[in-house]
Amino acid sequence: MDHRAWPQVTTLDAALAQGFRQVAADSARHLWSCPDAEFLAAARPDPDWPRQYFGAAYAALAERFAGDPAARTRRDIATIRAVIAEHLAPRPRILDIPCGTGRHANALAAEGFDVIGLDLQPGYLRTARAEGSATYAAADMRALPVATGSIDLVLNMWNSLGYFLDAAEEAATLAEFRRVLRPGGKVLVQQDLDAPAALGGHWLQHMKAPLGDGAWLLVRQVPDAALGGLACLSWVMLPGQDPFQGPAFFLRLRDDAAWAAEAAAAGFAKVSIARTPPGVAPHETVVLLGA
Ligand SMILES: C[S@@+](CC[C@H](N)C(=O)[O-])C[C@H]1O[C@@H](n2cnc3c(N)ncnc32)[C@H](O)[C@@H]1O
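A: This is the predicted complex of the input protein with S-adenosylmethionine.
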């Protein structure tokens, strides 16, 4: 989808009405600037938050946020091609989990790869099917409807791991990724956040991004030592309106030691981690797990 297809503010307004809720400007301002402990108490996520958060509003925001989405997808595809060239046979069978609206799965299918995309949200899968030729199904990443030992490359793109508050569910997810891999297969996890910096307290808590048409996305992300991740709240400010506040969300943070321990527990023999050097933006982490 290109820039010209971005929804106008009226459409964003309609999308925000699903999943986000309008709150008084004072309450948003308070949660934006209150002490961390107060924020963490208020931003405690519901364990089922992804079902509420990833909907029409998130999809509309993801298209407007983060610069040029098409360029970003092209960069990701180049990373994926490089991993295939270095580690796998030429025509790998690929599982994209979670695939969202299919931006990677459809691009790879268009290049002739055999790709299955799975996601929790049926609405995203409808968009994915309408925009390309990969195969799609609704699924939860904790229990993949995929045969054991049938996949050469599992893709987990754009901060799509670490959603579960319960560490056992995270372990189950990694074990599922391992289960479906063929011998010699790889799991590629891509994130644009710097987990070691956040765990070390070197972390920008407040993020503001223009959405165009005078609209803004604000996100406050505070490391939560008790949960081992980032507790986050987001607001969308549309001109002349009270802010829309999204459900609280959560991202588990893994440093190298956590990756090593959790990957080994899930049955992976190899872990390699590539991170953008400190101070270089945009940050990217690419983790490769080998069977
Ligand atoms: C940050 S988006 C990334 C989507 C896609 N990988 C991309 O790069 O555009 C995260 C996705 O995770 C999906 N999701 C969240 N929890 C899930 C779960 N338990 N099982 C499967 N998909 C899930 C959401 O529906 C959403 O599409």
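Residues 1-6 have pLDDT under 50 and may be disordered. DSSP finds eleven helices and 13 strands in the chain.
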